[in-house]
Design goal:
3-stranded antiparallel β-sheet; 143 residues; alpha+beta; 2 helices; 20% helix
Length: 143
């Protein structure tokens, strides 16, 4: 398969492009090894599917090209990043509140609207107060 470089009119083989991308990476093929998988998404590895995770060499003698000695590896699939780091627990017109990893609540002000005929300083601060009161009442109650 051939491909053209965007900056050049020279046609290159895809294999040579892949070689350029992988330059500096160490590649090897492990023979005679056992791989234990700990998966979250599937019961067993699916052919052609990519998995995010960590591969660890547990034990086993070094493998060389002449002698094949058993090596043992464990692959642990990482959980997907579906949960937001600091999830938003309240979204208002003027403020939002997020929950930190340690459980604390964090107040975030949205960009302040232009004050003018439709919105005075007093109406803005009162609106912030009402949202803060409503959010905290729902999140922590009357303790």
């Amino acid at each position: 398969m051939e491909a053209k470089n965007k900056n050049s009119k020279k046609v290159r083989l895809v294999g040579s492009i892949v070689e350029d991308v992988l330059q500096g990476w160490n590649r090897s093929t492990e023979l005679c090894c056992d791989v234990k998988t700990i998966l979250h998404s599937d019961r067993t590895l699916k052919t052609g599917k990519d998995y995010q995770g960590v591969l660890r060499r547990d034990h086993g003698a070094d493998i060389d090209e002449f002698r094949c000695r058993d090596a043992h590896y464990t692959f642990i699939e990482m959980l997907p990043w579906t949960a937001k780091r600091n999830p938003r627990v309240y979204k208002g017109k003027y403020i939002t509140i997020t929950r930190q990893d340690d459980g604390n609540l964090r107040l975030n002000f949205k960009p302040m609207p232009k004050l003018g005929a439709n919105l005075s300083f007093e109406r803005y601060t009162f609106g912030v107060y009402l949202e803060l009161h409503q959010a905290l009442k729902g999140l922590i109650g009357n303790k």
